[in-house]
Specification:
single chain; mainly alpha; two-stranded antiparallel sheet; 5% strand
Length: 225
């Protein structure tokens, strides 16, 4: 009988087999040692195979996303596998799939452009953590490719009223990221952001909204200088 150990996901403690624990420990070691990433991509990607547990696959998705941020071309062949988890029945795998696409897309937008429609649909996921991962992933991609979101900002404005507090906190940050690089795209949303900055009940939402307004206005001034 395999020994069990525990890993926490939020408030839930998942029991791991001894084999799972060994694999996750190895994945953690790889994650912490960038010098070995190139030589271990196949090892990490192999752990996305269906034969592994949800916990192992979740960790592998996280690690391969981090590797993809530095070596996007090296993970290119595994992107279809990563995207395959975007509709998985397990919310943790959906969340981690979205996270990974965000990191890879930050490094090379062309690798994730074919999957943008699927990525955008995750904003409608029933789980708050997946919707939060969606915003976070889009911020990552927009850091170097804000043009991909100029015509999609209305969708992020709708997330100002998301039922999830963490999503509402993060949504204004998307306007800050885009506003810094493509301020004209954010200009139509400044009044809404200013209103939220003054009136939202959550202090961090107000802070993030003020930041988006300030960054966008500063960028507009520079463009018009």
């Amino acid at each position: 009988m395999a020994l069990k150990s525990g890993i926490h996901y939020g408030r839930v403690k998942i029991m791991l087999s001894s084999n799972d624990k060994e694999i996750i420990d190895e994945l953690r070691k790889i994650q912490k040692s960038r010098d070995c990433w190139k030589n271990n991509i196949d090892f990490v990607a192999d752990k996305l195979n269906e034969i592994y547990s949800v916990e192992v696959k979740a960790k592998a998705l996280w690690v391969i996303g981090e590797i993809g941020l530095i070596y996007p071309e090296k993970v290119k062949e595994y992107i279809d596998v990563i995207v395959g988890y975007i509709e998985d029945e397990h919310p943790k795998l959906r969340e981690r799939s979205v996270n990974a696409l965000g990191r890879i897309g930050r490094a090379d937008k062309n690798l994730i452009i074919p999957y943008m429609d699927k990525l955008m649909k995750t904003r409608e996921d029933d789980m708050e953590k997946v919707r939060l991962a969606f915003v976070w992933a889009c911020e990552n991609i927009a850091t170097n490719a804000p043009e991909l979101f100029c015509e999609k900002l209305e969708l992020f404005k709708d997330m100002f009223s998301d039922p999830g507090e963490k999503v509402r906190i993060e949504a204004p940050e998307m306007f800050r990221v885009v506003g810094k690089r493509k301020p004209e795209c954010v200009r139509p949303y400044l009044k809404k952001l200013e209103y939220i900055a003054k009136n939202d009940k959550h202090p961090i939402v107000r802070i993030h909204s003020r930041g988006a307004v300030r960054i966008t206005k500063d960028a507009l001034k520079k463009d018009n200088a």
